[in-house]
């Protein structure tokens, strides 16, 4: 198993492949299917959608990779300031008519997000099929958590799948508050928190 890369080593040439990896891994995720119901359109739009988040996390040294790019973890460290207007514009450009669904997700996430508690925020993590269940994601999470622990701050994630929840629990996350349920019997996001150690 390759060691996770340093977040500062993400070069521009890595942004596209990591965006494609995330798009591929999340193509059948309940959250992206709710956001973009049509399979073909989802396949077309997800790489651009994830590129926004890869670039956002990279700007805050919040990208870790392992397995020669076969696994990726995106996060924002405590104190990261996000230009919400610019982010909304980038997501609107990437998603077109599906941007309103993304705004509904973001609004729901804002309701459950822990306020007034400095923390790292994990946005997305993915491992290429065939490399899953080999410890790559746990290694990435543990590396990020060492940073959070060294700074004495907690870490927050919203798990959108049983696999994501299981990976989070393995490294010490616990449920935080009620599930976030999207409209129309939509998918569930499970808020989870880990105190610093």
Task: Please report the distance between the alpha carbons of the first and last residues.
Answer: 26 Å
Total tally of structural domains: 1
The ordered H/E elements are: HHHEEHHEHEHEEE
User: What is the CATH first-level class name?
Assistant: Alpha Beta
| CATH H-level superfamily title | Gcn5-related N-acetyltransferase (GNAT)
Give the helix/strand class: alpha+beta
How does this structure look, described?
The chain has 197 residues and is α+β, with helices and mostly antiparallel strands. It contains 7 helices and 7 strands, in the order αααββααβαβαβββ.
Keyphrases for this structure?
7 helices; Aminopeptidase; 47% helix; alpha+beta; 7 strands; 197 residues; globular; seven-stranded mixed sheet
